[in-house]
């Protein structure tokens, strides 16, 4: 955990990989997730069959370099940790993928331990969960 979805317009595999690494490295650095805790869905939209919509709200001018990052994780992070996460994602997206920070849109959705199953039909994080199956 966390679960990350990244959507970018016209991104090739190399750019998608770079964006995924940027988000993952930022999560490891700012929130303290383990380096091997990576669950990501990376999607490129071609602008014809699938596309991304955006405007300039709230005064941020975006262009076709837009990247949407949706992160789902358990609740408990401080506002300071989240601000550091957003800043670091934007920095690393620029460094790794050449994405301008103004084009990095991030949302975090928090939930509880019972809201996760990592396989075997079990809620591994839930209180009273049986031992993990290996």
From TrEMBL:
Source species: Actinoallomurus acaciae
Lineage: superkingdom: Bacteria
A Pfam family: Tautomerase_2
Name of the protein in its database record: Tautomerase family protein
């Amino acid at each position: 955990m966390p679960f990350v979805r990244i959507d970018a317009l016209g991104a090739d595999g190399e750019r998608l990989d770079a964006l995924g690494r940027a988000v993952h490295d930022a999560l490891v650095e700012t929130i303290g997730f383990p380096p091997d805790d990576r669950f990501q869905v990376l999607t490129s939209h071609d602008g014809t069959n699938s596309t991304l919509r955006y405007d300039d709200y709230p005064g941020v001018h975006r262009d076709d370099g837009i990247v949407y990052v949706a992160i789902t994780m358990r609740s408990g992070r401080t506002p300071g940790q989240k601000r550091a996460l957003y800043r670091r994602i934007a920095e690393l997206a620029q460094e790794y993928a050449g994405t301008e920070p103004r084009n990095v849109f991030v949302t975090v959705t928090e939930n509880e331990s019972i809201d996760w199953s990592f396989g075997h039909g079990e809620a591994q994080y839930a209180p009273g969960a049986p031992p993990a199956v290996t």
